[in-house]
Amino acid sequence: MHLPVFLREVWNADEAFVAVQARALDGGAGGFYEIVADRKPPLLPALYLLVHQLAGNATVWVMHGLALAAHLATALLLAAAARGRWGGRAGLVAGLLYVVGSAGLSPEDAQAANFEVFALPAVAAAVLLADRRRFAAAGGAAAVAALTLQAAGGVLLPVLWLAWRAAGRRGVLSAGGVFLAVVGAAAARVGWADFWFWVVFGNGGYTNVSGAWDRVALRGLGGLGIFLLANLGAVLLAGADRARRGRGDLWLWLVVAVAGVCTSLHFFGHYFLLLLPPVVLLAARAAATRPRLPLAPLGYGLTAAAVFVALALVWPAGKDRHAELVAERVRARTEPGAAILVWGMDPRIYWWSRRPAATRFLSAGFMTNFGGGRDASRVGERFAPEGVWRDFEADLRRRPPALVVDDSRGAPYAPDRIGRFHRYLLAGYRPVEVVDGSVLYARQPAAAGAAARLR
Fold this sequence. Notes:
Blueprint: H1 13-27, H2 43-55, H3 59-86, H4 88-101, H5 107-110, H6 115-131, H7 135-148, H8 156-190, H9 192-199, H10 204-207, H11 213-230, H12 232-239, H13 248-262, H14 276-288, H15 295-314, H16 318-333, E1 340-343, H17 348-353, H18 365-368, H19 388-398, E2 403-406, H20 419-428, E3 429-435, E4 438-443, H21 448-451
Helix pairs in contact: 1-2, 2-3, 3-4, 3-6, 3-14, 4-14, 4-15, 6-7, 6-8, 7-8, 8-9, 8-13, 12-14, 12-15, 13-14
């Protein structure tokens, strides 16, 4: 189901984003949130960094292999959880439904080495460990999930439910205490202030949907529709189960997974992977009550997955081609090691140009609040998180880019709509080339002093 992951180096911008972060961390003096900024916890960037130190420019290819291993681990852990509760048939159903369901998204979401993919093994492990009354370890696994993706940390609630039912207050304190200790240790390692700002409190503007409710609703319904289309057999099987006992934690898990998908109100397709583990366990519970293996749901899941895998084989590479063309011209116009600035949303240009970013902010979205599923009503410098423009200016003063790539191509964050950045660009750079709609600006050394301030 996931062998197409090896058909291309980068499936989506998220992969390139974390790979560029790893490259910057490997060659820089400083830690996560200092050299690179992100709205995500630090665990997956740390894994990418480790792989980059071992594999260099083959980082993303290696991460694709690890993503495949993560899917397999999740399937096996869910199978073990189902088998422990309801027997071997339930375990087989859970594992198979996860494998086919995990391929049932847009190829850019299903085949990518995304945050969700690496969070789900810890999510499944947390529930399995709680089932086996290893509540401290379950809390630790839930913390690993949360440190990979904030929304995945919601698995702590079903873990606490299981701990309370099995061991009362002692179980809850054991699981909750270890969870808090692990998250607290990670926050201390990268810096308390930066951790809480970027992981929790600095995302208010990013999640605001003022003026875009219609777009948000359409994206949410569209993503849910694709998930249901791919997993209809599992969903119907779960709904056909008439037994009500022994599933309270699973329904709670499903509720927190839905909440996790909805948290940012951006509804990217890969978010919906969070729904899959509780759905397949609910389906496995239903399968255990039947006299025969439920071949129809399994057959439907396999058929749907085959369609999505076939899509991956022919999926167009339009964005890849654009980024490759721009990166090629960047390499031609700059020396190795020369810093560049890409004013856009796609860090693939950084990755393929093999040039370091001049700033810790790898997309213009940090400075403008632009993001998927939003219109121009809340895009602009005044909607950026507090302190971002100050840090952006400090980065550019410390490391003025030799080349600026305006990759906005008419988007709401185009330089002529962001006065502060537009003045910076005009003061220190001149346009030298247009590549597939992107404008390359070369630095004018005589104007470097004027260009150093974003005013």
